[in-house]
Amino acid sequence: MVEEADLKQWRDAGHVARRTLEGIKDEIQEGKSWLEVIDSAERFIRRHGGQAAFPVTISVNEIAAHFTPSHQNLPPEGWDKPMIFEKGDLVKLDVGVHIKGALADNALTIEIGNQNNHTEQIKAAKDARDASIEKMHPGTPWHEIGQAAEQVTKDAGFEPVRNLCGHQLERWNLHSGTSIPSYACGPKSGFKGTAEVGAIYAIEPFNTTGKSGMIENILPAGSSNILRVTGDVSIRKALSKGKLKPLGATMARYIEERYSTLPFAARWAYPLLEKPFPNEDAEALQKKWKAMTKKLIAIRFLEGYEALRDVDGGNVGQFEHTVIVTEGGPEVLTVL
After folding, report:
1. Which of 65, 153, 202, 326 is deepest in the core (most CB within 10 A)?
2. For 234-279, how does the pLDDT look when each residue is reduced to its tens digit (9 = 90+)?
3. What are the beta bridge partners of residue 169?
4. 249: Cβ–Cβ under 8 A, 6 or more apart, which residues?
5. CATH number corresponding to 226-304
6. pLDDT for 1 beyond 90
7. CB contact at 8 A, 181 and 187
8. In whole angstroms, what is the distance from residue 87 CA to residue 189 CA?
9. Measured between alpha carbons, how far is residue 209 from residues 35, 40, 62, 77, 282 in Å?
10. Are 191 and 150 in contact (CB under 8 A)?
C-alpha cells in the first residue's frame, strides 16, 4: 500500500503521463509514422521530468496492445503495410511514466482523419473505463467492477475483451499481481479479492468489434520488441557458473542499471552493443544482438513480450487511468 508521504511522486508521475497523452495525441495524423509519434512521446516524458515506465506503444486497428517498433523499425507479423497512419485508422496510444519507480499508466484511442467510423466504439471504451473507476471504493469485489465495464460495452454494441485486464501497480513493479477484469466474470471466477485502501491500480477496459472478445499473441516470440529484467538471476552467479561470457555479463549489467525491472524497448538497449563493436556492420551487430538476447532470455535474466491482436481481426478500443483507492473512494492520478 502507498503511504501518504509517498503520494507526491505518484501524483507527479500521473501528471506527466497525462500531459504526455494530451500533448502527443494531435501528432497522430495521416501520413506520420508510428515511430515518429513514439519517439516524440518518449522525449516529451523526459522533458517534463519523468522517465518512461515502459516503451510508448502504438496499436492500430486489430492490434490490441504491446507493440513498439524495433531498432530496425520492422512491422509486426501480418501487417503488410508501412507503419504510417492512414485515414480511418483506430489508434491506441499507451504511455507509462515513472518517477523514482512511482508509476503511472494511461492510454487513449483516437480515429485518424475524423471519419466518424469509430466514434461509438471510442466513446464506449472511455465510458467503460469511467464506469469501472466509479466502482473503485474500498471493499468492492473485482467481479462488480468487471460487470460495470461490460454493461457499458455491451449496451453500446461491442464485446469486452476478456483476456486483457487492469493491474495493480507498486513501486518499480508495473504488474504486481492483482488483475482487474473488464467483463462480467461473476463472483465465482478467479478474480478474488476487493479494491483495497491505499492500493494503486491501472483501470483499462478494452473493447472490440470481434465476436469472441479474445486477444492472441502475434508471433514470433518477442514480437512486441519489449523486454524486461526478471530480477530472478544474479549476473555474478551466472558468470561464475559459465552461463554468461564476460561481454554478456557486461551488457546484462548495463541493462539492469538503466532499466531495473521495468519493461524497456529493444531499440533503447541495442545501441549499447555498438560501443564494444564500433567497426561492425549492421548485419553483424544484429546477429550479435540476437545471440545475446537469446542467451539472456534462456538463462531467465530477461523475458520478452508478444504484441497482441484480436483473434477475429476486430478493431480494438481502449482507455486507461491510474487510480488510488482512498477511504472516500477513487482518486484518479493520471490527470492534468
Report:
1. 153
2. 999 999 999 999 989 999 999 999 999 999 999 999 998 888 888 8
3. 200
4. 235, 238, 239
5. 1.10.10
6. no
7. no
8. 41
9. 26, 30, 9, 21, 41
10. no
Distances (CA, A) of 137 to 13, 18, 203, 329: 22, 23, 13, 5
Domain boundaries, the chain: 4-213+313-332, 226-304
> What are the C-alpha distances in Å from 102 to residues 244, 311, 333?
32, 34, 11
Q: Is the pLDDT score of 335 beyond 90?
A: yes
For the cut 90, the answer to whether the pLDDT of residue 3 exceeds it is no
